[in-house]
Structure formats: structure tokens, C-alpha cells
Design brief:
The protein is α+β, with helices and mostly antiparallel strands. Helix content is about 35%, strand content about 15%. Strand 7 and strand 8 form a beta hairpin.
Length: about 325
């Protein structure tokens, strides 16, 4: 079970391999077209599925027993998800016995708060207009179950996040990137830029706001003040980044921060169009387009080539950003 990292069932293959692009896993353009007919031997609910990192399971499975459960050496894609992975007879028998026994025993492994969030079951409340409103703060997007093409595109997005980190670090900012991205971004950076990445956010917001902020792709901070926020939208739906920006402004309408969507030039028109959606135009703080601008990859690369970034103010970004058409400076 991806994201929860749990063993949840056994399937018996009952046909030869065949190709079929009828959408199953996605509403359209389903990338998983190599398929088999299967019969379920064991199917376990989320709370009954067996955690991969449960000590007896971790030690009993040969591909994990020599790894540290909490280290970055737990290679989900390489160990389990690269199609198709063949387990040894030892591992196959071990997992078969574990899952058949769990089918009978039905031991519960309670879901953590993080598990609940990954399943969309975790909620928070905020006070709005004198009433309590229930909200859900989505986790930042994970790529552990994406096909190879999407993984390549994700790597390009990571490179642009790293570029934003490097530029901000040279200008003297402290930098925040989501914890799930930190390791991959750091591998793209010189040591002096890595040193500017914060391990904890030095901010004093309510729980819901904090959860929203910590999932933004890149933040530039001066001491304990948010200065700029960036969402990199390489291939994902443009509005995913905009929604996170809008969430921030809805939760903290008095916050003074500049917001940017960073994307390839060929997505420019789409970004500027989406910024002006009615849902983003009716925020208490005012239209999102007043606070959020577009920066192209090309503009970001051009800024990176400036010789004196260390002596520049972040206001230089005004030369590289583009606002929605009706808000452009005249």
C-alpha cells in the first residue's frame, strides 16, 4: 500500500500479460497499460494492513533487514516498485505466511496522524467569521507511485527548487523547502547554499497555517519573517500551487508576503489565466493576482546568471516576474 508503506494483500495472477489502455487508475491517459487478470487471495483494510517497518516484518524480509528503518536508504521504488520486481522464494513464502496469518488474526495497527492525512481523513478547524470551520490541509505531492516519465519531470522540478534555494541563499535569505524534498534538493546545491536550508520553521502560526506553509515548495525568510514564497509547477495542474498560496492568504489575510508561480514559458498563459479564477479573486485580502505573479524558468535562469546576486535586494525579482494582464504595471 503506497504512501502508508504497508503490506495489504496477496493477488494470484490468472492470465497472461496483455496491453489495455482503458482508464482504471486515472480518469484519462492511464499510464499503466501492461496488465494481468488476478484473483484476490488476501485483502486487508488500512488499519489491518501490516506495516513494512514493523520490526518482525522488517527483519524477516531480506530486502529490508540490512537497512535502517528510519534512514534514507529505504528505497521504496528500487526495492518494491520498479516493474516488475521478483522476490526470492524465501521472501515470497515469508510474506505469504504473514498475510495469510493476518487475514485470520485481524490484528489492528492504528493509523498515525500522518497516515490519516495521507488518506485524507485528518481534519483541523479554524475560526472564520465567528464560526468554527473544518478544513483539510493536503500533504505536498508525493511521487512514489508515478511512472518513469513523471519521475523525470519531478526531477526537473527539483532542479528549479534548488535554483530558487541557491538564488535566495546568495541574497542572504534563510530557506525552507518541504522536508520530503530536502534530501533531493540538497544534492543539487553547493555546500554554502545547503547551509541556508532551515531544519525547522521559526514561525509562530496556528497549526493549520503552519501545516500549509511547510508544504510550499520554497520559502525565503529574513529571521522570523516570511518574505517570498514560490510554487514550482513543471507538469502538475497549475491550480495545485495556486490553491496552496490561496490557502495561506485565506488563513492569514494580514500577512505581507510576495507569492510566485514558477513554471516553463509554455505554461505562462495558463498560469496567468488560472490566477484570475473567481475562487482566487474573492479572498478577503483581495484577488490572489494582487499578490501572486508568474516567473518563467528562462527568467529564473537569467537571474541566476547575474554576477552580483549577493549584493542585490530581492526586489530585483520585479524585473523577472509577470503579473496577470489587468494588473500589469503601466
Amino acid at each position: 500500500m503506497v504512501r502508508l508503506s504497508r503490506w495489504c494483500g496477496l493477488l494470484e495472477v490468472t492470465s497472461e500479460m496483455y496491453e489495455d489502455d482503458t482508464p482504471i487508475f486515472r480518469a484519462e491517459s492511464d499510464p499503466w497499460t501492461t496488465r494481468f487478470k488476478v484473483k484476490a487471495l488476501v485483502l486487508l483494510d488500512e488499519e489491518k494492513a501490516v506495516p513494512i517497518k514493523f520490526p518482525a516484518i522488517w527483519e524477516g524480509f531480506s530486502r529490508t533487514r540490512n537497512l535502517q528503518p528510519n534512514s534514507h536508504s529505504w528505497p521504496v521504488k528500487a526495492v518494491l516498485q520498479s516493474s516488475l520486481q521478483k522476490f526470492s522464494d524465501e521472501d515470497g513464502s515469508f510474506l505469504y505466511d504473514v498475510l495469510k496469518r493476518q487475514e485470520s488474526d485481524q490484528i489492528e495497527y492504528p493509523l498515525s496522524e500522518r497516515d490519516q492525512k495521507l488518506l485524507g481523513k485528518s481534519t483541523d478547524t479554524v475560526k472564520s467569521s465567528g464560526r468554527i470551520v473544518t478544513v483539510v490541509v493536503p500533504e505536498s505531492e508525493l511521487d512514489i507511485d508515478e511512472p518513469t516519465q513523471v519521475l523525470e519531470e519531478t526531477r526537473e522540478s527539483i532542479k528549479k527548487q534548488a535554483l530558487l534555494v541557491e538564488i535566495g541563499a546568495k541574497m542572504g535569505f534563510d530557506i525552507w523547502v518541504p522536508r520530503s524534498d530536502q534530501g533531493r534538493i540538497e544534492r543539487e546545491l553547493p555546500s554554502e547554499a545547503r547551509e541556508k536550508i532551515l531544519r525547522e520553521l521559526p514561525l509562530n502560526f496556528d497549526r493549520v497555517t503552519f501545516k500549509t506553509i511547510e508544504n510550499i515548495d520554497v520559502l525565503w525568510l529574513k529571521k522570523r519573517t516570511l518574505v517570498r514564497a514560490f510554487e514550482v509547477e513543471h507538469t502538475t495542474a497549475i491550480y495545485s500551487g495556486l490553491l496552496r498560496m490561496a490557502d495561506l492568504l485565506a488563513l492569514q489575510p494580514n500577512i505581507d508576503i510576495k507569492l510566485h508561480i514558477v513554471a516553463p514559458e509554455n505554461r505562462r498563459d495558463k498560469v496567468l489565466e488560472e490566477i484570475q479564477r473567481p475562487v482566487f479573486a474573492l479572498l478577503d485580502k483581495g484577488p490572489l493576482a494582487n499578490s501572486c505573479t508568474f516567473i518563467s524558468y528562462d527568467a529564473l535562469d537569467e537571474l541566476r546568471r547575474q554576477d552580483h546576486l549577493a549584493h542585490m535586494s530581492d526586489s530585483v525579482l520585479e524585473e523577472y516576474e509577470e503579473a496577470a494582464p489587468d494588473l500589469e504595471k503601466t
